[in-house]
């Protein structure tokens, strides 16, 4: 009787930092060659192999051919918003699943600061995904409708930056895409280590990790990722409302979460970003703003009020009125002295705004670096 042979293991991304360091060490190859490999792939994102990298030891080429691929994911679609400030990337992973990353461009010269023109110019922020789907099940978030499918490797997280670099020079990275980053903690830490090293050289102060409030991970975060910004998806000022709209909040009681954040801030002189989605008639009344102000008045915090983005006709929520958003902002600012911003909505017309990321591919679409997908709604993303 013939026996089927085991499938050959997939080659790993060169950006899986721990794995490539381990393999190089076992082969007696210095780790200082690794950033040279990353730089080559970053500058040649369509390279099919790694033989063109100059000045590596001979055994390094053999190892790379055997166990690694320059890029394990593929950019299958790219969609620009009408105003061209936002580009949403659809990325197919080696296992056949897909995730999204969103490039958001801002011109810091628009508007004034302290009565004077703002300095700077166009800057790009990349919103990356850390998981395929999400197990948190937040009722206002499209990604939650997918359920949880898989964690991304650190290399797959980094490859989103490689793909995005074909469209803009990325200055900031936010882990606010698909998935709960703290539930893929080791890959998160490893990917950020690559982001902040050569050749990417991103400042940790320009990286933000968002979480629904995974308490044990927050306790580790302050030591493992110093100077990286922490954002907490609070979305309600009391436990009951949180549990209604964020089922996972039952595992992370608000009182314990706030204690963890207080401990975090006691050790880090760094503001915590509080994300608060504005849901009409649920958490957007003046009394809720006062509750939130009292909850945060001892913290060094920045509250970001997020107008709800519809996720289809099945949504049970409506967007708060502009009046309620402004009223909440005024209460937090004027009564409690808390810096409060209203998130600028970008990419709504391509379903690339906050809470709208969900992937369901009906067919294969090809999009090279310059091809834009005009009927993105067909993908339900």
TrEMBL record:
- Alphabetized SUPFAM superfamilies for the sequence: Radical SAM enzymes (SSF102114)
InterPro entries documented for this protein: Aldolase_TIM, Methyltransferase_A, RNA_MTrfase_RlmN, rRNA_lsu_MTrfase_RlmN/Cfr, rSAM, rSAM_sf
Q: Which UniProt keywords apply?
A: 4Fe-4S, Cytoplasm, Iron, Iron-sulfur, Metal-binding, Methyltransferase, rRNA processing, S-adenosyl-L-methionine, Transferase
GO BP: any one term: rRNA base methylation
Q: What PROSITE patterns does the record point to?
A: RADICAL_SAM (PS51918)
Q: What are the subcellular locations of this protein?
A: Cytoplasm
Q: Which CDD domains match?
A: Radical_SAM (cd01335)
Q: Name one GO cellular component term.
A: cytoplasm
| Record-linked Pfam families | Radical_SAM
Which terms does the record give in the GO molecular function aspect? 4 iron, 4 sulfur cluster binding; metal ion binding; RNA methyltransferase activity
Boundaries of each Radical SAM core domain copy? Answer: 120-349
Q: Which PANTHER family match?
A: 23S RRNA METHYLTRANSFERASE, RADICAL SAM SUPERFAMILY PROTEIN
Q: Which NCBIfam families match?
A: rRNA_mod_RlmN
User: What is the protein name given in its UniProt record?
Assistant: Dual-specificity RNA methyltransferase RlmN
- Which source organism does the UniProt entry give? Panicum miliaceum
Organism lineage reads as:
Eukaryota, Viridiplantae, Streptophyta, Embryophyta, Tracheophyta
């Amino acid at each position: 009787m013939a026996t089927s042979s085991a499938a050959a293991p997939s080659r790993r991304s060169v950006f899986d930092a721990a794995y490539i360091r381990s393999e190089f060490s076992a082969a007696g190859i210095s780790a200082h060659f690794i950033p040279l490999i990353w730089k080559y792939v970053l500058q040649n994102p369509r390279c099919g192999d790694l033989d063109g990298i100059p000045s590596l030891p001979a055994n390094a080429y053999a190892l790379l051919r055997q166990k690694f691929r320059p890029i394990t994911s593929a950019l299958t679609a790219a969609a620009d918003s009408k105003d061209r400030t936002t580009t949403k990337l659809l990325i197919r992973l080696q296992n056949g699943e897909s995730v999204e990353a969103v490039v958001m461009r801002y011109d810091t010269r628009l508007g004034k600061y302290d009565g004077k023109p703002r300095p700077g110019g166009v800057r790009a922020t990349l919103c990356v995904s850390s998981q395929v789907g999400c197990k948190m099940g937040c009722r206002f978030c499209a990604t939650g409708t997918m359920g949880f499918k898989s964690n991304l490797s650190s290399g797959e997280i980094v490859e989103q930056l490689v793909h995005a670099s074909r469209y803009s020079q990325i200055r900031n990275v936010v882990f606010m895409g698909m998935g709960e980053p703290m539930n893929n903690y080791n890959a998160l830490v490893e990917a950020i280590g690559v982001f902040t090293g050569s050749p990417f050289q991103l400042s940790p102060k320009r990286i933000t990790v968002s979480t629904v409030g995974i308490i044990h991970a927050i306790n580790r975060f302050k030591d493992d990722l110093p100077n990286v910004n922490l954002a907490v998806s609070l979305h309600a000022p009391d436990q009951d409302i949180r549990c209604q709209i964020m089922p996972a909040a039952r595992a992370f009681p608000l009182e314990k979460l706030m204690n963890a954040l207080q401990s975090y801030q006691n050790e880090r002189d760094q503001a915590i970003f509080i994300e608060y989605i504005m849901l009409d008639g649920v958490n957007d009344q003046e009394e809720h703003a006062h509750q939130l102000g009292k909850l945060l008045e001892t913290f060094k915090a920045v509250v970001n009020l997020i107008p709800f983005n519809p996720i289809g006709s099945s949504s049970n929520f409506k967007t708060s009125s502009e009046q309620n958003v402004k009223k909440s902002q005024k209460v937090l600012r004027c009564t409690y002295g808390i810096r409060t911003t209203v998130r600028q909505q970008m990419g709504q017309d391509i379903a690339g705004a906050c809470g709208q990321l969900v992937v369901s591919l009906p067919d294969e679409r090809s999009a090279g670096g310059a091809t834009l997908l005009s009927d993105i709604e067909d993908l339900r993303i």
